[in-house]
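Section: Multi-chain targets

For targets with more than one molecule, the full set of components is provided together so that the structure can be written out for the assembly as a whole rather than chain by chain. Components appear in the order listed by the source. The example entry contains two components.
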Amino acid sequence: MSDPKIEGLELKPGFRGMAQDTGSDQTMFKGVHWGKAMMWIFLLSDTFIFSCFLISYMKGRGSTPVEWPNPSEVFALNAFGVPVPLLLIAIMTFVLITSSGTMALAVKYGYEKNRKMCGWLVLATALGGLTFVGMQAFEWSKLIHEGVRPWENPFGAPQFGSFFFMITGFHGTHVTFGVIFLFIYAYKVFAGHYDEGKRGWFTTMKGDYVEIEILGLYWHFVDLVWVFIFAFFYLW
Amino acid sequence: MDETKKKEQASTHKIGIYLWIWGLLFVLSFFSYMVDWYQFQGMLRWSLILFFMFLKAGLIMAFFMHLFWERYALVNVLLWPMTAIACFIFLMVAEFEYTLFTRIFYFAVGG
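Its structure, encoded as tokens over all components, is:
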């Protein structure tokens, strides 16, 4: 994470350190595992993809003279006979934040080589993600039953459906892949692959708990994207 | 061996910081839900939504994704490209305002 120590090299902090790292004729991201650096680069490109979706949504919503469906009514859910605005979305948000918290703790316990704790927390994260995907499937089917399609909907501007399915669908796909990998990694942690340094499938790299941090970066990113979708699509 | 041990020690943080951030994220999410619950409208609504959104995003990136502890070489490579996204947003705001204007204009005066 931080404070890398490299023999014969004094690493300065701040911008001076950045200039030296960049111009050192060596590896630029000092003390950062290559897998972690590559995950960050991937997440950066993913940021651009989601930004393009959200910007196109902004452009679509801003340029239509037809009234936009009111999300707090469209996504309301009946609880005890009373419509509660955004109820399901709020629960989904809390579930995702919970799973983000368990993931952060899993990374911490992984680095402390606490195999059991790390494994249970990764498993809890996977179950949280599974719950989220399940609720999203419920939300999609509810809206489809109400007649929301990518080209029309009974609530207002027809663009609503296409942006909704595109953005939440792409995010849901990310969550789904995350859940699959979380289950695989939970197994790998429990099986002790990171304690023995067992190799992965497509790599000569020896297993290490840094892989849990890399997986964690992906999972936090999924949560991060949801923060923006929640703000711009559901609340705006 | 000594080297790796040092690295391990440097790479764990106290559990308290994670629990704090976790709690803060819950509170901030609750607040942003309240923005909808109380049906704030207009500038107040938008500024509150953006404020809570950026605060949540910042906390996740800084502490859960450890950017607060990373070296500047990595942090800067990741954060500066965001200015390109900001530029794109400004361009598209100008674009949708123009599109909206022409649509309303030609709806009113006819093709």
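DSSP finds five helices and no strands in chain B.
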